[in-house]
Amino acid sequence: MVVSIVMTPQEFANAVLAHQRFVAGRGGGKRAELRFVNLSGLRFPRINLSGAILTGINLSRSTLHDADLGFTDMFCANLVGADARGSNFFRADMRGAQLHRAKLVGANLSEADLRPGTMSGTDKRMLADLSETEMDDAKLNGANLTETSFAGASMKRVEMKGTNVIRSNLSGADLTGANLEGANVQNADLAGATLAQANLRFAKFNGSNFKGVALKDVDLSGADVRGSQMARRLDSFSVDIQDVLKNHVTWVESGGERGKRAELPGADLRDADFSGMVLNAATFTRANLAGASFTKAMLMFADFSGAVLTNTDFTQADMRGANLKDASVVMAKFRRTQMSKAPLRTKDGTRHWPTNLTGADLSGADLSDCDLRGATLDGANLRGANLARVNLEGASLERVDLATANTTDAILPGGQAA
Questions:
Q1: Would you say residue 278 lies in a domain?
Q2: pLDDT at 418
Q3: The whole model's pTM is what?
């Protein structure tokens, strides 16, 4: 177990001053070695720690914008929620670094190493986490981002020319106007990402997932997309299915006075792109929706009971009150999905209807940052599921084993933190 080291303000100031003398080549200088030091929540903007040893340092929620952290050893560092806008991380060793929800707007991470890392003395393999970061206009040219998570990150106009992004998670990321010319993005997950006006010329996307991605106005000239997964457009389905979906939209918009509710029991809808659609109260019982995309879709009270939802993407969808009883939801994505109780108006007043995941197989599913307050998960299989930062307050978890799930910063029933 890694233990954080507490350093007094004077000790830290002395270490920084000695390091600055070291960087300047003056006498009495010494390279700063701040291994596992806890500096969480502190303010030190524009600090110069270039070349310092910062292995395992805790800089979470710290303010260090416009800092110089180039060439540093930040192996498995914690920068969760840190403000590092405009900071320099050029050629930094950031393997396994945690930067969830950090501010990196305008930062320079060119040639930085963000591959996974394993901390000495443990067997835990840490993937670099930049999910939901703000990194518009950042520079990542030539960086090694293998198996890094940028899920839900804001990456508008980022420069990633020649960057290695193999097997990385870019699902739901906003890459509007990004430059990935010549980047290696093989076997990456781009499901639901925004790529408007992006430059993808000569990039390698072999085996990548483009489901739920609009590729209009995207420059793919010379790019290699062999073996990539593309969503099936709805106009590729039968006229009968298209009519069912069109009538459902009319039914929803008219409050049930016109059109007809969608009922597609047992339908083969594999890899279909339902991104952003309004499908409240639609019926998909026992349907095969493996690999389909429902990113940002409206699915309140939708019925997926008994459906095949393997690798289906529900990122940022509204699924309050939905029914997924006994569904196969293996490896599905529910990042930032709303699955709390839904208000249901009746003649006797308003009730709150829980989302039903009873008996669902959620093994390996990603439910990070998902709102599951009041949901029913009795008998569900959560083996290997990602429940990081999930809110399960008031949820029912009878006969559920969370031993192999990732419950980092999760809120469990009763309000206690995991």
A1: yes
A2: 57
A3: 0.74
